[in-house]
């Protein structure tokens, strides 16, 4: 298993290109199942999760081409995928594939909406809490599907097609909103989604579905309306920049010090996190090419944050912000309200000398003057990158084991950091 070794202490200076968003690319790829025509997706990040979803789609019979790199494009330029679900050979998504990534469960919606049936293994993915799918299944049931659980598989049937309906989510769910939008796009009649998630990735999916011929309005608000259509068509769509990758590198700069431009980043997509970073002492400015983040010598101020659905502070940036707060000049309180058990990075940060006390959904972080490098273990995607951030500022050497978690969600991480002066090396084994 690969390891990453970081020698801490170097500031970051330069340019980091921000990749296409993983959390947008995955639902967009899934949406290819809604049509027999070609869906061309531009700026898809090169990530393990993308490759895994491609395998799952191929297993259903989706043809795909990855358009080669054009002259002048760097290794960090996203790829273009062409997906065509002309003939579906199998509406089953098997356990050995779905259990590795939770988002692959979402294929249930387009398969059901277009073919009237789907058999999808119950999901796996990051070990952050129980992460149930009850709200997704309730939404599909509301749209007229019959759902059974058989030997670890969800079997969904709607032989006469789905029917538009009113779906009122009892809590905000990104996965539920994606699934409801995809299913309702091909349902008979109109659907109203109340208490919808407003994340930029939801808007990206709605934009793409509309290019494919869907009739969706209100994405980005709590109320989404969908007029079902009988078929969808091919389209071309560019994946939006990754706001979590953006926030992660912004926090890395705040931690290590320096001056970095995050190319292609969109500040509007991570206002809460940038506000917290500014309070912590970083300077953040939107530029023509993206976002410039600086911290030159200023102390890191303690800042309290509470995770919340968009536009609140993203749970996917909580671990990274906690890493930053371990070096703050005082005590900060970080509350996690989206997922239980999303504090697995705490014990690893402690190995570097961080002082963090847990009290239910609250982490109380007492800033320390210095962190010291140590061997640590990546436990989930975002937790692992928080260890990278801590390692950048720790004295000596930090070795991060089990970095396959990082490869699921961060494209060319070592290359991007090394180019800005960080001493980061991957040891393959
Ligand atoms: C997505 C993101 C993930 C991010 C999360 C919250 C992708 C691929 N993943 O995950 O990176 O951390 O949004 O911003 O886009 N819930 C239920 N029942 C359900 C579904 C969800 O109780 O049927 C709960 C979850 O356990 C969690 C909360 O709702 O407590 C939010 O989950 P959700 O927004 O659905 O997260 P994901 O879409 O899985």
Description:
The N and C termini lie close together (5 Å). This protein has a four-stranded mixed sheet with strand order 22-23-1-24. It is globular, with a radius of gyration of 21 Å. Helix 5 packs parallel to helix 6 (174-185). The protein has 14 helices and 24 strands. It folds into two domains: 3-19 and 241-427, Enolpyruvate transferase domain (UDP-n-acetylglucosamine1-carboxyvinyl-transferase, Chain, Alpha-beta prism); 22-238, UDP-n-acetylglucosamine1-carboxyvinyl-transferase, Chain. It has 429 residues and is an alpha/beta fold. It binds uridine-diphosphate-N-acetylglucosamine.
What is the overall number of helices? 14
| SS strand fraction | 25-35%
Using only C-alpha atoms, the radius of gyration works out to 21 Å
Instruction: Determine the mean pLDDT.
Output: 94
Task: Return the CATH architecture of the largest domain.
Answer: Alpha-beta prism
CATH superfamily of the largest domain: Enolpyruvate transferase domain
Helix content: 25-40%
The helix-and-strand class reads alpha/beta
Biggest β-sheet: strands ordered side by side in the sheet? 22-23-1-24
**Uncertain residue ranges:** 125-129
**Outline:** globular
